[in-house]
Amino acid sequence: MSATVIDGKAFAATVREKVAAHVARLKADHGVTPGLAVVLVGEDPASQVYVRSKGKMTVEVGMNSYEHKLDVDTSEADLLALIDRLNGDPDVHGILVQLPLPGHLDEDLVINAIDPAKDVDGFHISNVGLLGTGQKSMVPCTPLGCLMMLRAHHGDLSGMDAVVIGRSKIVGKPMAQLLLGDSCTVTIAHSRTKDLPQVVRRADIVVAAVGRPQMVPGDWIKPGATVIDVGINRIDAPEKGAGKTRLVGDVDYDSCAAIAGAITPVPGGVGPMTIACLLANTVTACCRANGLAEPE
Ligand code: NDP
């Protein structure tokens, strides 16, 4: 195995330390404590795990965490009323509605009801538009975490060929915008892309956000390329015992690591950076709300 392993877990810990230091300064110098409200509708097990760890880490960096757990059959009107209340609450600087929502709730309507200044997930149509036009916005956490790791590894990304596999609004599209913003030559691939292996083979940077376990094999990777694996997939792991499972990404780690220059592992790569960026976005939102200098 030749690739440098990009340690997202360690990187995320340094981001959280910086966030904690900034939070401490906000409290000491301005008497302000950033607050993050997380809204969970229903009892999806994966969402419950995410919400728990978001709440725990919010408190660990010294911020206030407000959790709102609503019944699975909560009406759209009740959810919108809660969002309205959080929009008007000066102690709440960030609002995150955990996705996916139960089928009877209109996801776009709900997300677009969040005050864009408090939309720490960066999914509100205003933030999408601001990012797309290169203006100051709230940047979606997962792509932001990927960009931070790429910048830390490469420094300047200018002129690099980047292929993003996946065009979702939460990962693929904003990732492509961010890479374009850093002057990469960007290709967005998706399920209709012709000859995906050839498209991926020309990339200096591959970001895989597909949701298909180990889909990208090493022989699609240009020697020395950097591979960022966003995927989180649970697969059977009979080698660990009957009924056991394990997490894998969207790339086949061993064969890709043998040829790539650098690669993020799953778990321990993009995942931890996502939550760290959520905390960083909440501090940014708090600073903007109070007219204070933003963290770098
Ligand atoms: P979506 O299902 O919304 O999007 C998947 C994308 O992959 C679509 O654009 C789809 O194309 C494309 N795709 C599907 N099959 C293929 C194929 N065979 N070849 C090429 N492209 C294909 O997923 P998300 O973007 O929400 O998530 C992607 C992965 O990232 C998942 O594993 C998810 O769990 C993970 N994730 C991880 C996060 C983290 O914190 N690490 C955060 C968010 C997501 P088309 O549009 O044509 O259908």
Write the layout of secondary structure elements.
Blueprint: E1 4-5, H1 8-30, E2 35-41, H2 45-60, E3 64-70, H3 76-88, E4 94-97, H4 107-111, H5 125-132, H6 141-154, E5 161-165, H7 172-181, E6 185-189, H8 196-201, E7 205-208, E8 226-229, E9 233-236, E10 245-248, H9 253-257, E11 262-263, H10 270-289
Parallel strand pairs: 1-11, 2-3, 2-4, 5-6, 5-7, 7-8, 8-11
Antiparallel strand pairs: 9-10
Helix pairs in contact: 1-10, 2-10, 6-7, 6-10
The chain binds NADPH dihydro-nicotinamide-adenine-dinucleotide phosphate.
Which series of helices and strands comes N to C?
EHEHEHEHHHEHEHEEEEHEH
Q: What is the number of domains? A: 2
- The radius of gyration is 19 Å
Global shape: globular
CATH class of the largest domain: Alpha Beta
Family: Belongs to the tetrahydrofolate dehydrogenase/cyclohydrolase family.
Domain Tetrahydrofolate dehydrogenase/cyclohydrolase NAD(P)-binding: 140-288
Protein name: Bifunctional protein FolD
InterPro entries: Aminoacid_DH-like_N_sf (IPR046346), NAD(P)-bd_dom_sf (IPR036291), THF_DH/CycHdrlase (IPR000672), THF_DH/CycHdrlase_cat_dom (IPR020630), THF_DH/CycHdrlase_CS (IPR020867), THF_DH/CycHdrlase_NAD-bd_dom (IPR020631)
Question: In words, what does this structure look like?
Answer:
The chain is α/β, with parallel strands linked by helices. It folds into two domains: 29-125, Leucine Dehydrogenase, chain A, domain 1 (Rossmann fold), CATH 3.40.50; 141-272, NAD(P)-binding Rossmann-like Domain (Rossmann fold, 3-Layer(aba) Sandwich). Helix content is 41%, strand content 16%. The protein has ten helices and eleven strands. It has helices at 8-30, 45-60, 76-88, 107-111, 125-132, 141-154, 172-181, 196-201, 253-257, 270-289; strands at 4-5, 35-41, 64-70, 94-97, 161-165, 185-189, 205-208, 226-229, 233-236, 245-248, 262-263. The chain has a six-stranded parallel beta sheet. Helix 6 (141-154) runs parallel beside helix 7 (172-181). The protein is globular, with a radius of gyration of 19 Å. The chain binds NADPH dihydro-nicotinamide-adenine-dinucleotide phosphate (NDP). NADPH dihydro-nicotinamide-adenine-dinucleotide phosphate (NDP) is lined by residues 142, 165-168, 170-172, 189-193, 196, 209-212, 230-233, 250, 270-271, 274.
